[in-house]
Hints:
This protein is mostly helical.
Amino acid sequence: MKTHPANALLQTIGVVIAFLGVIAVLAIVPQFQDVFESFGAELPAITQIFVRGRWLLWPLPLAVPMIAAFVRVRDEDDRRRGIVGLIVGIAIGFGLPFLCTMAMYLPIFMLAPA
């Protein structure tokens, strides 16, 4: 089965957006790491995951073509596979930095009086 050029383009755009999201996370975390070390308090689990395992995020953009590969295509003009790849890439590219930002600010929010 031939691949429609639009599918390849949309999946590539999705992978690029996902990689930009991972790069954003890798830029955010080190800025907060010094602040966390000065706290001396126990960090929430989600914050610890991002601080300790941030380098494990590099393979995450590879999920874009892997998930898109499972989309059933009716004919070679069907662009659903590319659209799914783009949507997954956008979800990773925008969702991951948002989740990381919330995880980085969570210990600061917990220090505030109730």
